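Quick one, tokens below:
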């Protein structure tokens, strides 16, 4: 959905106890065809289609066929949802390859709307990134597209549509992707994708959330999404329909978690059972005294080493302080069919999140001197007659100022959340090093591709511009991205030949 820019007027909105002034809040209207700002689209240098190409050579080639199709999906507990899927399941077909493999994925679109596939967190050539209007045209109904890249970096990833993702990911167009190490560290390896659905209520549109905002926010910055959904799922199932994890006492497994939804989730593990081993496909330093509660932000990936503590049934489940928590409970049993006791949701006072543990391998051993510095101000606004918008530097996409870089630049980004909602900010095509929070430097910096910035928080990150292209940097609450919170890392040496909107209906939000 592309939005025309609507300016004018000064609007005063009461947010809780504060009064925030918004002036000339632009908005990106669904009905119009928009292009990127001129400075991004200047056709200088090389097309992104001509950079970074990769060939299979003598590598092993792993080929997958994914078909986007509509089904009625049994979510469990007697409920079904209309879902859009890759290969007829939610999540879509799980993809597993080995580091170094050449991966080929043939996408066929059998939906009546355009789709793409974005390979979340994977470092690949820009033209394979799956962003309509920026790196490709959306794949039209009845058409096909082939993605190819080398899976060089072992870790936990996922794939999802980036065409109007606030709707398409919400309806189930996502799946798991694991790039396994050549020598596996754990014999047992399981994947869990967390999500939220509107099953027994009509999903509220973000544009109509202004009245709720006037009434105040919840304490965790998520009032917008908490009122939009009524059911939590794990691997597409809710409550008693969730498949148990069968493990013997003392057995250890690698559990990979992805949050495909738009709310943060805090998972409670049996005490003493769990160590975080990776975050966003980067190994972390395992420290003593880690908590049994792990917070996973929207779009984030966290891997844990989980050891079953007893021969009794156990539960890995959503912390019980939120509505619908009972839907998100993974039983851990010693034998399939064993009874599961409603126990074990006993949280400790501490919570480990995406910046709790430093990374084993850093991008920069010392804080570098930046060639480019970009101050990213995240805020909220209202648009006359259109509702709520989410802004970067007081603009909404495609009018947000790009991060302009040259190949080889060291880039510093100061991200500040001046709004009242959480914003998990995800950078495509690169990893960045998180060096400080609220002005305090981390003793152990963290390498990631997504940073969860809560209201009032400020992070400083660094990355090296070493992957030419036009790359999105956006909020992974896709409702926020859809309503403006997107910008672009724009390499001066290249340009994109694609356009937002147009006859292909390209919508990267």
């Amino acid at each position: 959905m592309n939005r025309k820019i609507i300016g004018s007027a000064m609007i005063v909105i009461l947010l809780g106890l504060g009064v925030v002034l918004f002036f000339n809040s632009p908005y990106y209207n669904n009905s119009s065809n928009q292009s990127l700002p001129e400075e991004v689209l200047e056709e200088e240098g090389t097309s992104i289609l001509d950079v970074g190409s990769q060939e299979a050579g003598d590598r092993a080639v792993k080929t997958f066929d994914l078909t986007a199709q509509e089904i009625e999906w049994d979510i469990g507990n007697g409920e079904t949802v209309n879902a859009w899927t890759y290969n007829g399941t939610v999540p879509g077909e799980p993809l597993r390859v080995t580091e170094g493999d050449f991966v080929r994925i043939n996408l066929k679109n059998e939906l009546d709307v355009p789709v793409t596939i974005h390979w979340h967190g994977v470092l690949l050539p820009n033209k394979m990134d799956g962003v309509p209007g920026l790196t490709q045209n959306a794949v039209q109904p009845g058409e096909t597209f082939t993605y190819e890249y080398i899976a060089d970096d072992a870790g936990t990833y996922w794939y999802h549509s980036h065409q109007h993702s606030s709707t398409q990911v919400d309806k189930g167009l996502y799946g798991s992707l694991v790039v396994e190490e050549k020598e596996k560290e754990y014999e047992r390896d399981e994947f869990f994708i967390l999500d939220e659905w509107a099953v027994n209520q009509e999903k509220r549109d973000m544009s109509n959330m202004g009245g709720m905002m006037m009434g105040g926010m919840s304490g965790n910055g998520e009032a917008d999404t908490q009122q939009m959904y009524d059911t939590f799922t794990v691997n597409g199932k809710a409550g008693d329909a969730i498949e148990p994890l069968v493990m013997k006492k003392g057995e250890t497994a690698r559990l990979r978690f992805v949050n495909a939804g738009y709310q943060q989730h805090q998972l409670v593990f049996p005490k003493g059972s769990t160590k975080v081993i990776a975050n966003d496909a980067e190994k972390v330093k395992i420290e003593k005294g880690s908590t049994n509660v792990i917070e996973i932000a929207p779009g984030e990936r966290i891997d844990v080493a989980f050891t079953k503590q007893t021969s009794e049934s156990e539960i890995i489940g959503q912390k019980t302080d939120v509505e619908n928590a009972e839907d998100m409970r993974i039983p851990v049993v010693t034998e399939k069919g064993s009874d599961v006791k409603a126990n074990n949701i006993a949280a400790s006072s501490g919570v480990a999140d995406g910046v709790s543990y430093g990374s084993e391998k850093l991008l920069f051993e010392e804080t570098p001197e930046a060639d480019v510095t970009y101050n990213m101000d995240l805020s909220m606004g209202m648009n006359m007659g259109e509702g709520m918008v989410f802004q970067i530097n007081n603009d909404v996409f495609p009018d947000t100022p790009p991060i302009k870089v040259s190949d080889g630049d060291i880039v510093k980004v100061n991200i500040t959340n001046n709004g009242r909602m959480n914003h998990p900010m995800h950078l495509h095509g690169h990893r960045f090093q998180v060096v400080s929070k609220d002005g305090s430097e981390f003793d152990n910096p963290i390498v990631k591709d997504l940073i969860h910035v809560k209201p009032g928080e400020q992070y400083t990150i660094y990355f090296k511009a070493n992957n030419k292209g036009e790359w999105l940097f956006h909020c992974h609450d896709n409702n926020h991205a859809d309503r403006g919170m997107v910008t672009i890392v724009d390499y001066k040496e290249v340009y994109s030949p694609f356009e937002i909107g147009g006859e292909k209906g390209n919508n990267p939000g």
